[in-house]
Write a structure and sequence with these properties.
326 residues; alpha/beta; Rossmann fold; CBS domain Like; 2 domains; six-stranded mixed sheet; 16 helices; 24% strand; elongated; binds adenosine-5'-diphosphate; binds magnesium ion
Length: 326
Amino acid sequence: MISFEGVTKRYDDGRAAVDELSFEVNKGEFFVLIGPSGCGKTTVLKMINRLIEASGGRILIEGRPIGDYKLNELRWNIGYVLQQIALFPHMNIAENVAVVPELMQRPREETAKTVDRLLHQVGLDPKVYRGKRPSELSGGQQQRVGVVRALAADPDILLMDEPFSALDPVTREKLQNDLLELQRSIRKTIVFVTHDMREALKLGDRICVMNGGRIVQIGTPDDILHRPATHFVREFLGDAAESGRAREGLPPLTAEDLADPLEPDGRLTAEGAVSIGADTEIGELLWHLAAEERLLVRRGDDVVGLLERERTLKRIAREFEEGGRG
Ligand code: ADP
Ligand code: MG
């Protein structure tokens, strides 16, 4: 559906903000671009709708280079949602949403029906909200209108640039859920930019991790979570990995996960240490570590490792910060 073939973007300073990027977004796919601030995510999005021209390489939509489309034709087929959506303050919600269909000279009645259906689908009762002004809506409701506006002309592609990142966590979570629900029925090709790994893992069919204008890894949430390709991805997973474990019902960390192997001369350091079962879970483990400097980890009669208080606490902290099982 959308293909990047060795796409590079140099701004005026000559540095490559996006460097030889190649990837493909499939039809109907929810594709998430994630990476730290400045890694080139917005540049990628804006090259798709030609708000920015690539300096090298090719971008194709449905097999045709984007330069072959008339600019209007291209833009009308691509909805665009930004972090701060700019609704026209003097127009009501229905008018705001209908701007593009109006430009396209779509029949008004048809547009009105579409607008009502979409408002309803994002949880805004059209009877209540159609006639309201943007200023009467909360931030979360305005973002919902932003999504409706991007979809009003029924584009094939939806580009979303950190659309929920300015919202409070509770509102953000609601909008994420509603977007997933909406996508189940509309099945658009979505390219969604975020720097929040939890959001990426939750929403994406596939996730593309970027750093410094390059792709570090492309994979399903499962790939990213359990098979991070590089240290960078692992770091970027952060505590999303922990919440990912919880969500997937993965067992919590155990004494065995956290233990250091006994060194050859470990008998000395381990002497007199209290024993603890290998399957002891982290919560229980913390109680033991509060009381004991060292714990021997046993499975049956075998000693499988040693936990030292300070080292173990550091390791737990790191697990929660960086994610992964080490
Ligand atoms: P992200 O969306 O991931 O934060 P951007 O695509 O906005 O990243 O920016 C990527 C890099 O390109 C950054 O180093 C940024 O400073 C630079 N950049 C972005 N826009 C411009 C511009 N108009 N002129 C020069 N440099 C830019
Ligand atoms: Mg950006």
